[in-house]
Amino acid sequence: MLVEAMGLLLGGRASSDLVRTGEDLASVEAQLETSDGREVLVRREITAQGRSRAFIDGQLVNAAALKSLVGELVELHGQHEHQALLDPATHLPMLDTWARLGDRAAAVTAAWSVVSEASQALARAELDAGERASRLELVEFHLNELRKANVLDGEDEALEREREVLRHADRLKTLSADAYGLLYEQEGAALTLLSQVWKRVADLSAIDASFVGHLQARDGIRAQLDDLALTLRDYHERFDVAPGRLAEVEDRLALLERLKRKHGPTLGDVRTKTAALERECDALTAGPQQKAAAEATLAAARAAFLAVARTLSTARRAAASTLGTSLEGALAELGMGRARFEVRLATSEAPQTWHAGGIDTAEFFLAANPGEDPRPLARIASGGELSRIMLAFKTLDAGAQPARTLIFDEVDAGIGGRAASVVGEKLRSLGAHDQVLCITHLPQIAALASTHVLIEKRVRGSRTVTSVTRLEGPAREQEIARMMAGESALSNDVLSAARTLLGAKAKVAAEAKAKGESPSRAKAKARP
Q1: Minimal CB count within 10 Å: which of 198, 215, 318, 492?
Q2: Are the CB atoms for 407 and 76 separated by under 8 Å?
Q3: Distance, CA of 102 to CA of 465 (rounded, Å)
Q4: Distance from chain centroid for Cα 481
């Protein structure tokens, strides 16, 4: 339930099947804390018809905006659709993050952008005469259309406001005339009556000083009402709609909408497109000199890119072997004692292989069992292995990034005994920096959490309901015992073992506190 809910907030596919039978809407909501300490409320709704809406602090946003925000704060590990390790494209950035190479990688990406732009400029300059003429004809066609339109920033918004006024011209003229008459001109006008009011307030203040303040405000109020009267009179007198103006505004707005559909979506984008087409037009008409200049620019850009990419590649190669060794050690503690982990880095300086990440590609390889050759992680690792590998990554990387919420599912798959205890201790240590949520079936892991929540499904009447209960004291001992022996095998000996397990957990926490470690915020969730 937790994993599926967070999956929806992370942009997962919404389906009407998630809506309870007989209900119109399903809603998932989370309160998150950003790295700067600001709290945000995120929500996603799914209707019985399968439509989905997303909200951030009550404001409607698209699913991409929700995914971007939540993805920065929450990581979900264990279900394949959210497992970054399955995508080899993420392996190189993960290596960079672990090796603290982010600044160098950003410099390479920036240099690659310069190369890409220079390559496009050269490609335009290298068009043969026929292609150049054809392209120039198309560019000039669009450019002439845009120049003729002479689009101004914010013009569409101003015209939409004018259209609204023109559509209600008669009513606006009537309203302004009526308001002016009632305020100033008609018999019994408000300003005339107000003069009588102020005379009586003056008489009151002569007797009771508590009215003096109101009397002193008289001139200011009178000035505001006089200004309003003049504004209404001028508005009525100058309100003269030119014949055909509404049609002109409608035609102009229709033109702007067509341009926004072709070059937008905003008028700012249309103006940007105009400038880009002007540059391309200049390049297409510049001739051989432009080509020579473009070739020189591209050569300089490639040299600059290759210099920073080589430096980054050297650092990556040094980090790759260290990461593999470090992960093998961490995996050994997590019940994968004989696993072999490799970061295979391939480097090519051939320009056609370059990319925004540099001149390297990386892929993680795993041999989970002895006697097997390492193979691509994305093809052979099980869900539990993937989750433990990610846990190992996070343990090695603890404290290097802003605090996040880490959710682990299936992290206990295929382990038990001492390995389960070590997994629990790793999760607890991660909880000193990050918020950790773990769905687990193992008492050794659940006992090490600072908070234990039981999620149960029950049938009430003819409906299935899910309950969430925070367990403490005897209730937690009972649940740990049930996880150890099952519902039907509870005994005093099992309950005693559960108390012993929880006591060991308390001792671990006390020792950590004595060493000055941060209190764990790990949260274990046990489910039937």
Answers
A1: 492
A2: yes
A3: 46
A4: 41
Q: Looking up tokens 């603890």, which residue turns up?
A: 398
Contacts of 108 (CB under 8 A, 6+ apart): 305, 308, 309, 312, 356, 357, 358
- Beta-sheet pairing, 405-409 with 25-33: unpaired
371 vs 42, 339, 368, 377, CA distance in Å?
Answer: 48, 10, 9, 16
Residue that is written with structure tokens 């050297």 in the block: 314
C-alpha to C-alpha distances, 450 to 351, 440, 472, nearest whole angstrom: 53, 14, 10
Q: How many CB atoms lie within 10 A of CB 334?
A: 22
Count other Cβ atoms within 10 Å, centred on residue 89.
Answer: 11
151: left (phi over 0), alpha (psi -120 to 50) or beta: beta
Cα separation, 459 vs 62, whole angstroms: 36
**Computed from CA positions of residues 323, 325, 329, 331, in that sequence, does the dihedral angle turn out positive or negative?**
positive
Two tokens at 319? 């980090």
Q: How far apart are CA 421 and CA 260, in angstroms?
A: 60
Contact between 216 and 201 (Cβ < 8 Å): no
Q: What does pTM read for this prediction?
A: 0.54
Start-to-end CA distance of the chain, whole Å, equals: 12
Distance CA 314, CA 525 (A): 43
Rounded CA separation 220/203 (Å): 19
Q: Which two tokens stand for residue 468?
A: 């969430």
DSSP character string of 380-412: H--HHHHHHHHHHHHHHTTTSS---EEEEESTT
**Rounded to whole angstroms, how far apart are CA atoms 76 and 409?**
8
- The strand pairing partners of 270, in sequence order, are none
Q: Phi-psi region for residue 287, left (φ > 0), alpha (ψ -120 to 50) or beta?
A: left
Q: How would you write the pLDDT of the chain (528 residues) with one tens digit per residue?
A: 788 888 889 888 888 888 888 888 999 999 998 877 889 999 999 998 888 899 999 998 888 888 889 988 888 876 554 467 888 998 999 999 899 999 999 999 999 999 999 998 888 777 766 777 888 899 999 999 999 999 998 899 999 999 998 988 889 989 999 999 999 888 889 988 998 999 999 999 999 999 999 989 998 998 999 999 999 998 888 877 888 999 999 999 999 999 999 998 889 899 999 999 998 888 778 766 777 888 999 999 999 999 999 999 999 999 998 999 999 998 888 878 889 999 999 999 999 999 999 999 999 999 988 888 999 988 887 766 777 788 888 888 766 677 788 888 877 766 677 778 888 888 888 888 889 998 888 898 999 999 999 988 888 888 888 889 999 999 999 999 999 888 777 788 888 988 988 886 666 555 555 555 443 333 333 332
As to burial, measured by CB atoms within 10 angstroms (0-12 exposed, 13-18 middle, 19+ buried), residue 398 is middle
Distance of CA 386 to the CA centre of its chain: 24
